[in-house]
Design a protein that fits this description.
2 domains; 184 residues; alpha+beta; four-stranded antiparallel β-sheet; single chain; 5 helices; globular; Alpha-Beta Plaits
């Protein structure tokens, strides 16, 4: 049976001493859920794997249920197929990620049913500091490093959509794509 390659992003684990789970344990949990080719990347809840399940809602519900059982706490996940992750990389805004010396770049991944159209409405920007770009499967956020402390990016934490997003920096996003593409 054909399998789909996925990147599964867990929201809010191993941050500030909360929702602690070791990556080797996370890998075992995914293998126990019958995912294959399971790999984790850094401690922030990035899982690369393959699965027979093609319905992402069923897939994420299954993962969230097992994580709740293990952590006794709700952990939301965003699952992207390799195709969707490739779109995040290839459809990035022009110049996004090209000037690490002057800018900080983040990719905001959406937890369904949140859409980019809805999410972008909740981002505040400070003129001359922040720029937000809407993609198909993500929202891209760029900040001027020199004025980093003036950025409004952190205000997203108080928004109604905060529980339905997970954020990775651009370099991590690119690395996750490279690793996920190697699975095929």
């Amino acid at each position: 049976m054909d399998k789909t390659v996925y990147l599964v992003l867990l929201r809010g684990i191993n941050i500030g001493g909360n929702n602690i789970i070791k990556m080797d344990e996370l890998k075992r949990l995914f293998e126990a859920m019958e995912f294959s080719n399971v790999t984790t990347y850094i401690q922030s809840g990035n899982v690369l794997c393959t699965a027979v399940e093609r319905d992402k809602i069923k897939l994420t519900e299954k993962i969230e249920a097992v994580l709740f059982e293990r952590l006794n706490r709700v952990v939301k996940v965003s699952a992207l197929s390799l195709h969707e992750l490739r779109e995040v990389i290839t459809e990035k805004p022009q110049g996004f990620g090209d000037d690490d010396e002057n800018y900080k770049y983040d990719v905001v991944f959406l937890i369904e049913p949140l859409t980019a159209n809805e999410a972008v409405k909740h981002f505040s920007t400070k003129d001359g500091v922040d720029t937000v770009y809407k993609g198909k499967n993500a929202v891209y956020f760029r900040r001027v490093k020199e004025h980093y402390r003036k950025s409004y990016f952190s205000k997203i934490a108080g928004s109604p959509i905060y529980q339905n997003i997970t954020i990775r920096n651009w370099n991590t996003t690119k690395k996750l794509y490279e690793l996920t593409a190697e699975i095929t």
